[in-house]
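Q: Please design a sequence for this.
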């Protein structure tokens, strides 16, 4: 009905524009191709940089002027300063200050003790299986198991921050939330491990809390199964504040990769065509469960109990159904996490990556998106 009656059908990212044309509405596309477009979503830099990160905004304005406020693609002018040691030092201080600000908020409102010297790795989005917060949680559980066996292993200290809400009737999503909380509590109670690894689930997540999280984050988790995330805007907000995207080739992650270059993003996992091929041949998560010791140990631990709570429904879903192929992408995701920790040790390299992300974030402004809607869809001159 919508395809018949609407003037335009928009995919909100290049990949999902193609999916609409080639898969979802392919029959419609064959007879009315002129209706289909792909205008990538955008965010307002006025809120997600200028309002929520005033220190960084001042540094940018002092460095390249203020014209970027009206034309955010002029943030490109920041790119050469990635090679300026004094500028990088100022940026690192601002990032640290933002981490301290978030840490202070969490201590005051959640009683959480968060070390701002840890990597801040954030997954901020609606809690849904396709967004795969349980992939993130399972990897944390694997790290926890490794540290239990060898507390003195070489480990780059990392804080995983989850920010999400689930739909009221979505039982499995709520079980995943509870599992993340239980994992957080169990790790917190082990001082030999909590001085290397910590997990926090932000309470009552909303825009005002997001405005503290985005400037403080250093890794942006965008780990949906390829082909399932239409676009994403959290990835853009985090990028704009200098977080490095760790993600699959899905939604706007593809366009972020094109904007920043392979060297300034951490990509893992199957592509959409790989996912489709695996589905066609018959995906069997049980084979991963039985043949991968790390995966098996994590899923068995969910059933055995974390902080006194069992998560049989999550475990059974993963090893028997796994609709979003968490197990198929697990090893690749673990490698990406290890790569992020290695890269972070080189502070110069990491800061350069962050600055190139900011410098190339202007194309994801809502100004650009609205202008494209105006000219390409609404016909406004």
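A: Design:
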């Amino acid at each position: 009905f919508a395809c018949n009656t609407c003037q335009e059908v928009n995919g909100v990212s290049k990949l999902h524009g193609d999916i609409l044309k080639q898969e979802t509405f392919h029959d419609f596309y064959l007879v009315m191709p002129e209706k289909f477009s792909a205008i990538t979503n955008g965010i307002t830099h006025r809120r997600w940089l200028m309002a929520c990160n005033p220190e960084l905004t001042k540094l940018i304005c002092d460095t390249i002027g203020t014209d970027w406020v009206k034309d955010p693609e002029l943030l490109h002018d920041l790119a050469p300063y990635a090679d300026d040691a004094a500028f990088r030092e100022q940026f690192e201080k601002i990032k640290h200050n933002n981490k301290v600000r978030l840490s202070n908020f969490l201590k005051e409102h959640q009683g959480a003790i968060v070390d701002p010297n840890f990597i801040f790795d954030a997954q901020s989005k609606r809690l849904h299986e396709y967004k795969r917060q349980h992939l993130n949680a399972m990897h944390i559980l694997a790290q926890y198991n490794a540290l239990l066996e060898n507390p003195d292993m070489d480990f780059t200290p990392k804080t995983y921050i989850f920010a999400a809400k689930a739909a009221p009737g979505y039982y499995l999503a709520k079980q995943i939330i509870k599992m993340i909380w239980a994992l957080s509590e169990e790790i917190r109670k082990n001082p030999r491990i909590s001085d290397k690894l910590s997990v926090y689930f932000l309470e009552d997540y909303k825009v005002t809390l997001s405005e503290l999280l985005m400037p403080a984050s250093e890794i942006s988790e965008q780990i949906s199964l390829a082909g399932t995330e239409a676009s994403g805007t959290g990835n853009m907000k985090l990028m704009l504040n200098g977080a490095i995207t760790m993600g699959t080739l899905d939604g706007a992650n593809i366009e972020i990769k094109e904007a920043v270059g392979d060297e300034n993003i951490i990509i893992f996992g199957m592509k959409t065509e790989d996912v489709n091929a695996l589905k066609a041949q018959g995906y069997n998560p049980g084979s991963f469960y039985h043949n991968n010791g790390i995966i098996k140990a994590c899923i068995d631990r969910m059933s055995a109990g974390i902080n006194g709570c069992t998560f049989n429904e999550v475990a059974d879903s993963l090893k028997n159904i796994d609709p979003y192929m968490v197990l198929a992408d697990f090893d690749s995701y673990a490698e990406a996490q290890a790569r992020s920790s290695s890269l972070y040790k080189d502070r110069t390299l990491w800061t350069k990556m962050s600055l190139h992300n900011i410098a190339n974030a202007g194309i994801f402004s809502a100004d650009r998106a609205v202008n494209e809607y105006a000219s390409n869809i609404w016909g406004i001159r």
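Q: Thanks. Anything notable?
A: The beta strands are 9-10, 36-37, 119-124, 158-163, 197-201, 219-222, 244-247, 266-267. The longest strand covers residues 119-124.
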